[in-house]
Specification:
By secondary structure, this protein is an alpha/beta fold. It has helices spanning 2-20, 33-46, 53-56, 58-83, 91-119, 161-171, 186-194, 233-268, 317-324, 332-338, 360-363, 380-383, 393-408, 412-422; strands at 126-131, 145-148, 176-181, 199-202, 214-218, 221-228, 274-280, 286-292, 342-344, 354-355, 358-359, 376-378. It has a 6-stranded mixed sheet with strand order 2-1-3-4-6-5.
Length: 432
């Protein structure tokens, strides 16, 4: 749809230029179309013009496109007036080109939406999960996938990160997941769906403590919606653009530091420069996090079951410096570039991380909900001072409360604020 929209704009302005027999060249020597096209695209994305709703409703699709092209035209005409170029460019011809583009956009969107709806009865990918001896009238539809977890050897076990990872990999391919399960499994599936980065529903409405956000319907039966799904497309684009806008310049600026630290780590002790460790990421799936190696290679803790202490004999001389200044975390900028982390988000934890003598997910079952968003290099918990080793269960509970607050109330402005506050806590008393 994005490509077809751009073609409609090119045709609209192209016909306008042919009629006028002169290019719409602006004051900077740039053809107006090369200003209108990206402006329209940005406005359309920001106004939800490329969401699933535009495929489900022709009226909604046309209204979003109309809003974007109308505002694009208004911005161009206002800019011409403010820059004093109205004598060089014909406002009438540009207005006609905008109107022609709008007509083409309407035709394209109507045809596109109807074509998609005729060929794909459902515009969302739906997975029906069957867990337990359930009724034979379960949904059998050629348009939706059905997963019998017991037949596949899977299990909703929130105490096992590898099983959570296996389910997370499956959920990552779907927009909406509906679970049919026995009552005793509802609580586990509720936690999995809340952290699964999907619209999650339980087919059997029931217990209030599951935290339902609304009542849904599927196959004529009511469902309990307990997860709202990922951020909207505009929000995801904003967050990704924010990440790249800071990450790419930061990597280029810090490249000399990367080289110096890499040499220092290599000369200080034998072993690789980078330390890779499995961490829990978005949707409860695992990924490799990158750090500068700060411990002796033979004593590295790949599971993270032993927290670093102030007098830890595993830490090298260079390691103490880069850990104290948080320089060891800088390679995670490449995780952000690859897309498995964000600048801001809940910190990713190792599989063996302990709070007191308990694994993180055993301390509080709500732990898995924090993975609804990408993990971050820094986050709300970190700027509030909840950093370092988790000697007590309360250390994790404070961080978890901040992480869940961030996940449930994300805004781009909050990300910017956290990034600024992070600069004040790079050096902290709990870093060792």
């Amino acid at each position: 749809m994005m490509v077809l929209d751009q073609i409609c704009l090119l045709l609209g302005f192209g016909i306008g230029e042919v009629v006028r027999r002169q290019a719409f060249t602006g004051p900077l020597g740039i053809d107006i179309i090369f200003l209108a096209a990206p402006l329209y695209l940005t406005l359309c994305v920001m106004s939800d013009g490329y969401s699933r709703s535009t495929l489900e409703s022709v009226e909604y699709s046309v209204s979003r496109s109309f809003f974007a092209i109308g505002l694009t035209g208004a911005v161009i005409l206002a800019s011409m007036f403010l820059l004093g170029t109205s004598e060089e460019l014909s406002r009438l011809n540009i207005t006609v080109s905008i109107l022609l583009s709008a007509i083409l956009l309407v035709i394209q969107r109507v045809v596109f939406a109807r074509t998609v709806r005729s060929r794909y009865p459902s515009t969302e990918s739906v997975l029906i999960i069957m867990d337990g001896p359930l009724s034979a009238r379960a949904f059998h539809s050629p348009h939706h996938d059905i997963l019998d977890v017991q037949a596949r050897g899977l299990q909703a076990d929130v105490g096992d990160p590898m099983k959570m990872h296996a389910i997370g990999l499956i959920l990552a391919h779907y927009d909406r997941v509906i679970v049919h399960c026995d009552p005793e499994r509802r609580a586990d599936w509720a936690l999995i769906l809340k952290g699964g980065n999907v619209i999650g529903e339980l087919a059997q409405p029931g217990l209030r403590e599951l935290g339902a956000v609304s009542i849904g319907h599927f196959g004529g039966d009511p469902t309990l919606v307990i997860a709202k799904g990922p951020l909207s497309l505009p929000a995801r684009l904003q967050k990704r653009a924010f990440d790249l806008a800071f990450t790419i310049p930061a990597i280029l600026a810090l490249l000399p530091l990367f080289i110096l630290v890499a040499l220092a780590v290599k000369l200080d002790s034998p072993g690789p420069v980078l330390f890779k460790q499995k961490r829990v990421g978005r949707g409860n799936t695992l990924f490799d996090v990158f750090k500068f190696r700060s411990m002796r290679q033979e004593l590295n803790d790949l599971t993270g079951s032993r927290s670093a202490s102030r007098d830890d004999d595993r830490i090298t001389r260079v390691g103490r410096v880069i850990r104290r200044t948080s320089i060891d975390e800088l390679p995670q900028l490449f995780n952000v570039l690859l897309g498995n982390m964000s600048l801001i988000g809940p910190r990713p934890h190792a599989l063996g991380s302990l709070a007191g003598n308990q694994l993180f997910w055993d301390v509080d079952r709500q732990y898995w909900r924090r993975h609804a968003l990408k993990p971050g290099i820094t986050g709300l918990a970190q700027v509030r001072g909840f950093r370092g080793a988790t000697h007590e269960m309360s250390d994790l509970q404070k961080r978890l409360a901040a992480d869940l607050e961030y996940v449930s109330d994300w805004t781009l402005l909050r990300d910017l604020r956290i990034l600024i506050l992070t600069l004040k806590v790079v050096l902290h008393k709990n870093a060792y």
